[in-house]
Every structure is written in structure tokens, then in C-alpha cells.
Amino acid sequence: MLKTVSKIKTILDEYVVGHNDIKEGIMLALIAREHVYIEGAPGTAKTMLAELAAKAANLKFYFYQFHRDTRLSELIGEYIISREETNIEIDGGNSKGELIRQKLLPGGIMTAQMVVLDDITRAPGEALNILLRLLNEREYQGIKLPLLTAIATSNPTQDDYFNEPLDLANLDRFAIQLKSKGLLTQGNWDEAMSVLDYYVDHVFDKDSIEGFETDLFEQPIDYMLNVKMPTKVRKRLMRFLGKLIEDYHLNETNSLLTDRTFLVKAVRVLKAKAILEGREEVIPSDLSVLKYMTTFRVPEEVADKIEEILENLDEKKSRRA
């Protein structure tokens, strides 16, 4: 497991400088088989990192860029209409009739292990609703999807980009939520110079990247059961959630701290962090990944303090400890 994960990380680091949170978020999603939402301005490596991860993991990959006229068939495949003659009984006698059948020829999301859904906030409502149900259930009309991880990207939701934000309930489909920022706008000049130096001497060709043979992602996710999560970590997680609710007054009107995300999916992401670090047990510092799960689920001023809140958990224990 660790060898496989390390190879994927090596390829991400080789072709993309910086953006370490995005890299880690994508790796956690692959291991935990959860979905990722990445928001950031154009040109901040969102789509590039997703495609690199798919190629490195040797996964069957599907990319789709949303537009206002996106049709469902573009996402799931085309329907084939067939007609055949049949006998119909009318008033005790037989008459010729026509039977029309509709069959789905699966494509797109229906056949991919990893999908990148670019500009998801441009998706029309009908297509978006069915898409999100697909991501959640990983099944469509009784057909099981091979889907492991979906990575949805979006530009910042502002007038300049002509898009609308996903509501909290839809965002909750994505266990890991990230913000991608440019090296220049953050003033990361050393990393920016490294990118410049690379492209002076190289021409990037994503199609030349070869994945490696692995059956890791063909296996059931039972490997998660081999990773222990001690009681002290469970209690610390509950203390963190209690602090958000009690000290920062978070509730259903201003945040989305759902049982599904923080009592079920958080366990997978925490165990994925341990696996990423080469351990078979979750430790308290692994709770740092909660910053990836609260990005858009809590008010921005609280999301910006998540790491600080985690560091100060022991100073004033919540009544739920």
C-alpha cells in the first residue's frame, strides 16, 4: 500500500511545484475512496493534479467540462432506441404492433474509476442532481459503477466567472474540500521560480506520463479495517466537534456538520492519513486532515482557524470530552 501511494505522490511532486494541500487531499481521497471538491482561480493546477493522479494510479479516467447546456447523456452514455414488431391482442383478435425498447450504452462516468468534473458549478440543475446522486450511490438504474473517486473543480463563485455556488447539501457529497491558490498571488516566490526554471528546460506532456501496474484500487476497501483508531483519537475528534458547536455556535443554519461526514467519512479520511504516513494506527496529529473537511462546511472565519482550534483542544476541554 505505502509503496503504491509513494509512487503516486512522486509523480505529483515531479510535475507540480507546491500545492501540497491539494496533493495530500487528492491522495487521501484515493485511499479512502471519497470525492473531492477543489475551488480556485483558473491556472492554479486544479485539473492538472487530478489528471496526474489518475495517470499515476493507472486508473480508467474520464474528464468532463460542464457548460450550461450539459445533457445527462454526455455524462452517462447514450440511450439506444430499438423497435420490433409484435402481436397485440385486440378484442379477441391479433393485430400487428410495434414494441419500442430503450437501452443505455454506458459511457463517461458509468465506466470510469476516476472522474474529473471541471467547472461543476456551471452544471444545469437536472444534470447536477442526477450526477450527485450517482456520486453518492455509485449506482445508476441497477448498474454498479467502478467509480472510486470523483474530483470536481470550480472557479471561485463570483460574477466574473458566471457560475453559481453549490449549496451546502450538494457540497456535502464531497468529503474533502480544498481551495487552490496560485503561487504568485500567495507570494511563494521560490516555488514560482522553480516552476519557471522547469518550463525553461521542459515541455510538459501529460500523455507521456506512464502509470504503474497495481491492483490496489481493484481490491475492496477492507484494507481500512487493518488501521486502528484508538479511543483517545475518537474522543479528541468528538471534543473538536463539540468545540465547534459550543464555542463557535455552529448549527444547521450556519454550517453543515453532518453525521454522515464527521462520524462516518471522517473515519475513512483519518485512516487514509495514517496509511499515507506508513502507519497502521491513527494518531492525534492526524486530525489535521479535518481542515480539508471543514473548508466550506463552516463559516470562512472558523475554517481559517481549524488548525489553531485543533492545537488548543487541550487548553479548554469541551463538555463532550
N to C succession of SSEs: HHEHEHEEEHEEEHEHHHHH
Number of strands: 9
CATH topology of the largest domain: Rossmann fold
Oligomeric state of the chains in view: single chain
Number of domains: 3
End-to-end separation in angstroms reads 34 Å
Question: Major sheet: order of its strands?
Answer: 2-5-8-1-9
Helix/sheet category:
alpha/beta
Low-confidence spans: pLDDT under 50, at least 5 residues? none
Helix percent band: 25-40%
Strand content: 15-25%
In short:
By secondary structure, the chain is α/β, with parallel strands linked by helices.
Structural summary, described in words:
The protein is an alpha/beta fold and 321 residues long. The protein folds into three domains: 2-68 and 110-201, Rossmann fold; 76-105, no CATH class; 221-311, Helicase, Ruva Protein, domain 3, CATH 1.10.8.80. Helices cover 37% and strands 18% of the residues. The chain contains eleven helices and nine strands. The protein has a five-stranded parallel sheet, covered by helices on one side. A two-stranded antiparallel ribbon has the order 3-4. A hairpin with a 2-residue loop joins strand 3 and strand 4 (93-106). The longest helix is centred in the C-terminal third of the chain and has 18 residues, at 259-276. It is globular.
List the helices and strands and how they pair.
Layout: H1 2-15, H2 20-32, E1 36-40, H3 46-56, E2 61-65, H4 72-76, E3 77-90, E4 93-106, E5 114-118, H5 125-137, E6 139-140, E7 143-144, E8 149-154, H6 168-171, E9 176-180, H7 189-201, H8 231-247, H9 259-276, H10 300-303, H11 306-311
Parallel strand pairs: 1-8, 1-9, 2-5, 5-8
Antiparallel strand pairs: 3-4, 6-7
Helix pairs in contact: 1-2, 1-3, 2-3, 2-9
